[in-house]
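Troubleshooting: if your tokenizer reports a length mismatch, compare your output against this known-good record of 293 residues.
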Amino acid sequence: MKSGFITILGRPNVGKSTLLNAIAGQKIAITSNKPQTTRTAIKAIITQGDSQLIFTDTPGIHKPKNKLGEKMKETIEDAEEGVDVILFLIDANDASISDANKKIIEKIKSINSSRILVINKVDSVKKEHILELIKLYSEECDFNAIIPISALKDDGVKRLMKEIIKLLPEGPFYYSEDEFTDQTERQIVEETIREKCLRLLDEEVPHGIAVEVISMKKRPRKKLYDIDATIYCEKKSHKGIIIGKNGITLKRIGERARQDIEKMLDYQVNLQLWVKVKEGWRDDPNKLKEFYK
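Known-good structure output:
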């Protein structure tokens, strides 16, 4: 038996959460085209035959601008502890190695783990460009493997999995074979609602949003969940944007979130959403503890 812990590192928007979902074969981490969508370390547990792989998706590596950013940075550092394999994810569209990626490489070199360079979004560039990136990164760091993939199209992911399993040590399973994530249903519901906010709202609003499930009651006879959740924002003006004219934006957020939650829970869902203002919560340690326990 082989088992081990794999951490996915990379800059914001390189496709870390999309890769995690492709590996898991189902939606575990929320995705959007906005930076720093992922705020906490999310685990996907994959059991294949006599191997168990525990993947951790981390927030994009960035310079913190507030207490929330500092907490996300701590999450990344925690995910680097005791890891067996590091997946360093880069965007195939990069023209060269950025200063930010050079810093990540130096960090990776200091960690006593196997390392794989994963070049994502290869479907959007020519093969010659991928070969050039492989040459550039090979000169910077000695990787155990370099795997080009398209996480969105699930291309190259199986090959990546084979390479990871090769690098895993012998060991016991840490989770039962039917477990697929360490997130609770409540956390998945909160993140699903936040994803819809990210996808439907203007640029300045989503980063100041947090979601908290206030009540989640199961009615087995009716195969129904009653869920009440609150969307918190930092400004009164943002509250109006989230609700929208005649409540249309909030209604769209709720409809799209409900559809995904019903698929995840395999239950009908009665979802009620509320919007409240909590000014400056991203810089308030107490409020951060409330939202990210």
